[in-house]
Amino acid sequence: MTGENTRLFLLNLARESIKSRFEHTDVRTYIDKNSFPSEILDNGACFVTLTKNNDLRGCIGSLEAYRPLYEDIISNAVNSAFRDNRFAPLDRSELNEIKIEISILSERILIEYDDFSDLKKKIIPNKHGVYLTYSYNSATFLPQVWDQLYTHEQFFSHLCRKAGLSADFIFYNKPKIEIYTVEHFEEK
Fold first, then answer.
1. What class has domain 4-105?
2. Which CA distances in Å does 16 have to 61, 67, 75, 87, 141?
3. Nearest to 127 by CA among 106, 143, 111
4. Domain 109-181 grouped into CATH 3.75.10.10
């Protein structure tokens, strides 16, 4: 768990990373890593979500912890703002209108299940994020998605569609399911 000061630091780092792109600089050139909280120097995986007027404006993240958490936040903040192909790149005029949310992911755990009914018993809404893979198809939903998709049926139907599968795929097939939890926080 990160403390309140670390959370504020990371939210500011994400915003400064986006802002630096508008100025054609890289935030890494003017930050002092010696002042960083020690827990963000360890490898970590995160998603950075941008919203504007409570609507999604960008969301990019990492499922694997393969670089220091602060690097993952810098990269995913910039990618959420400028490289989420569902949205036009963020315009400078929107910078003060967006709200930034960071979700730090735990390691994933493989779920063994017999069928959809059994799977429902093992997935806890609002707690578990889900990573679904089948052949070359994959998709994930953060635990916060349960706020819009309340039932297991809705959640998994949308997740299957996001993965490029039919909405009812999960009811008749057994894709690989991994779960994770997140520590998430956002700008006030």
1. alpha beta
2. 17, 19, 12, 20, 26
3. 143
4. no
